[in-house]
Amino acid sequence: MFEKYDLKRSVDDRAFKKAIEPLQQQLGVLQRSLRDHKIPVIIVVEGWNASGITMVINELIQFLDPRGFSMHSVGSPTDEERARPLLWRFWVKTPQKGRMAIFARSWYSRSLAEYIAGIEWKRSIRHSISSINSFERQLADDGAVILKFFLHISKEEQKKRLNERENNPLTSWMITKGDWDFHRQYDSYLPIIEQFIEGTDNASAPWTVVEATDENHTVQKVYSTVVKALEKRIAYADSHGKNARKNEIIKPKKIEVKRASTAPETLTRDEYQKELLEYEDRIRDIHYLLYKRKLPLIIVYEGWDAAGKGGNIMRLVRHMNPRGYDVVPAGRPDQTEADHHYLWRFYQHFPKTGHVTIFDRSWYGRVLVERIEGFCKEDEWKRAYNEINEMEQAYIESGGGLVKFWLEISKDEQLRRFNQRQNDPLKQWKITDEDWRNRKKWEEYEEALDEMLGRTSTPHAPWTVIESDDKWFARIKTLKTVTEYCETMFW
To answer: Which CATH superfamily is domain 2-240 in?
Structure first.
């Protein structure tokens, strides 16, 4: 692939100045327009060591309002970042709508570094490429402009620049043994880099390989590519509406998930107390094993209003070490959360290794309440099934565990609990006007629920339906399910 690029390409100073000045001015204009249109932009600058990554970014930001972009220089991950999936640290840095995020190196450098180090991230380059493509496509589908640059220089040019920097007292500190080791492996790494670029060059997140021997040519090509792409995106938004974008909706195949609770199972008080003590003790031991073996676990609770999620969670965590788990209630997103991809706010709470995060409602709100109440567009919730499946699969392949519960109750039982809450002064805070409004849309929610369960119950992340008309039975079944799932993680 790289053979087709002429690394001797150059631009003289006079031609460069004539071409670059209007591009620089236009970039500032485009930034303001992107803000008005609420379009997020991600610019990735990758390349060989000493190819000019810092120089290119420095030139690029000279004519940008610093209040409208964030700069991320990606190095070795921190201990906090190592304790989470590789793409987690990049998900949480994705920009709000109307802002730019510029990455000096990115998920590509980290993927390559881990591959070279012999770390089997997603077991192979193919899996790495697949995960990156999903990550970028989800952001692009949500309206982000993604531009990726690889600064390409020859092995000889790299050697010359490394020597120049090493021999200069002001820059010698920049050159490490690792830089020279990487240089000596230039020919070995070249086909790997080509494979990453070819495998992740898509219409929604294209690569631009820049012949980076001549500085003028490098800067001019990057500028012109950025300006052209942003002009095209804004023109499309102007003609199709501010937040318009082209999306390919991938709807996973639907399967049948039984959730009927017409004949609910029950437990006697003695049966409940006996099993509760047994499983709470086992959960305590499992929690310590998760920590000892550095295994993260996510538990998702979804269910009808008044189905008993709170009581279930209380019994689940009662004997856990409080320093090793978090319970995250998910309500309506605030403005900052709404200005990001809908999965962004949940990635913030993904557990680090050895910890447990329990979501009291979750990303599934996209295909339930947001769908029914019109908080998102039809193409957005239809697209979400596949995005959620991809996210969950990537998380599990990174070493995490995931348990998903749907707490099912009958419509009659819900009404009984609503009335009980409304008539009990100590429980009135649990019932709201919104609960009653949602109940009136039972049939609509039922339709959305069946589709959600059918399209997102997968071999790697199946749903477990908890028959919850009997609270005691429901609590024991959730404890038992978590226990058995975690035991399969250990043995």
So the answer is: P-loop containing nucleotide triphosphate hydrolases (3.40.50.300)
Q: CA-CA distance, 52 to 7, in Å (whole number)? A: 14
Per-residue DSSP letter, 306: T
Nearest to 393 by CA among 90, 131, 82, 128: 131
How far, in Å, CA of 94 to CA of 91, rounded?
5
| pTM metric for this prediction | 0.90
The answer to whether domain 2-240 and domain 269-490 are alike in fold is: yes
Looking at domain 269-490, which of 1.10.238.10, 3.40.50.2300, 3.40.50.150, 3.40.50.300 is its CATH number?
3.40.50.300
Q: Can you spell out the DSSP letters for 209-228?
A: EEE-SSHHHHHHHHHHHHHH
Q: How many residues can be counted in the chain?
A: 491
Q: Are 261 and 471 in contact (CB under 8 A)?
A: no
Contact between 206 and 140 (Cβ < 8 Å): no
For residues 295 and 352, give the distance between their C-alpha atoms in angstroms, rounded to a whole number.
8
Q: What is the pLDDT of residues 323-371, one digit of tens each?
A: 999 999 999 999 999 999 999 999 999 999 999 999 999 999 999 999 9
pLDDT tens digits for range 201-218: 999 999 999 999 999 999
Phi, psi torsion values for 208, nearest 5 degrees: -125, 115
